[in-house]
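User: Please fill in residues for this 215-position structure.
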């Protein structure tokens, strides 16, 4: 990229012919357009592109949860970029082009609070799923507290839909029964939960609870 002094038309921004103009800190720059490659994409490139598309598409509906869940894990990245990078590396299974999300490896939250100590998850009544956990908050010496609030997440792969609820029950509550859509009856749903502090500044790793069939 080269910089240039004002010509008869002055500086410019955007694409003009085969060059792109821009201004950075008061200095005009221009660069040539990137050359299009005629080489076909390699197998590795195609695989990485598909993995990226799968992960981004999976998390797009729950960006709100990701912003909270990855607030302390992100480093210099945005929460969604941190989550995408983590799952590209950890949570895609299969062989190209038959790739898919490995649901037990999904983590919509990563943090320092103690993760949920799971008892179980099951459909206990018509269109209702019950989550059960232990109160594993120590009495001293940690930011984990009995007042931490549960976030519950369900994913229905048949409908390709999420259902989530935030701050729904305290760690000390030990259980919560969540109503689900009636048209989910008969479908398998994957279930996760995590905890967030009352001030929403700290989170736990999310825990995968398993899959249950909605009654």
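Assistant: Residues filled in for all 215 positions:
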């Amino acid at each position: 990229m080269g910089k240039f002094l004002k010509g008869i038309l002055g500086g410019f921004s955007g694409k003009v012919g085969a060059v792109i103009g821009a201004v950075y800190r008061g200095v005009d720059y221009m660069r040539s357009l990137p050359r299009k490659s005629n080489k076909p994409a390699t197998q590795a490139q195609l695989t990485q592109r598909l993995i990226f598309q799968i992960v981004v598409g999976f998390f797009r509906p729950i960006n709100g949860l990701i912003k909270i869940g990855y607030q302390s894990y992100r480093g210099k990245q945005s929460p969604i970029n941190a989550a995408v990078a983590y799952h590209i590396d950890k949570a895609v299974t299969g062989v190209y082009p038959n790739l898919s999300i490995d649901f037990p490896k999904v983590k919509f939250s990563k943090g320092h609070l103690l993760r949920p100590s799971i008892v179980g998850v099951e459909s206990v009544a018509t269109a209702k799923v019950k989550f059960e956990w232990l109160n594993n908050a120590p009495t001293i010496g940690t930011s984990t507290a009995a007042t931490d609030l549960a976030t519950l997440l369900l994913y229905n792969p048949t409908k390709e839909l999420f259902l989530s609820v935030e701050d729904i029950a305290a760690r000390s509550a030990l259980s919560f029964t969540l109503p689900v859509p009636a048209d989910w009856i008969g479908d398998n749903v994957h279930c996760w939960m995590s905890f967030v502090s009352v001030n929403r500044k700290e989170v736990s790793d999310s825990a995968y609870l398993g899959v249950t069939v909605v009654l």
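For context: The chain has two domains: 2-32, 43-213.
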